[in-house]
Amino acid sequence: MPTPPSPAAPIPQGDQEPRPDPQALTSNPRLSQNAPTNVDYTPHPESSLAVPPEREDIVKRITSLYSGSASEEDMLVYAEKAVYDDPWSFCDTRYKIAGQWYDIQPDLTITPGIPKLLHSRTLATEIVLSNSSTLSWKQTQEYTPRLMPVPKAVNSLVTCTLDENEKVVYHKDQWNEKDYSHEGLGKVMKTLNGDYLTGITRPPKDL
Fold it and tell me: Considering all CA atoms of the chain, what is the largest pairwise distance in Å, rounded to the nearest integer?
């Protein structure tokens, strides 16, 4: 049986952002499998770490959101003041995070009245780190834009900081080995996307 993580102390606001070491977590001993930056974000499910059911459920709920579930039940994996951080968006509340997930649909059918920009599905995951306050996994996600239905698979490293109640307080999705600087025009555009997408995708306001 896997050993449950030790209880985590409350995390100060300024310390919530995870800063994983992509090379240490993902570098493949078979060097030919690595990118030139010495990372391998391709999941190898057979090598996934064994984690308690509660941690497996976190991965399941988040990959369900990536794949278009957009359910209030899955959204409760996040704390109310959680942060979401990826190459395109920066969100600082659970409601704004919902704005990201509510633009994804599990298939290419049209739902009347609800704008869906993408079809998405999770192809594979591999948990690479689980400790008292951090859960990290490699993930392959296939995206198909509605307006140009050509699928594209993206490998990334997803890292979540968890609070003492095992709620996600910071969700970071890295598509390459570089961390985010949170400076300049890129940060401004990411924040605008996080702030205004809810007006398009219209998630439930009580999130």
Answer: 49
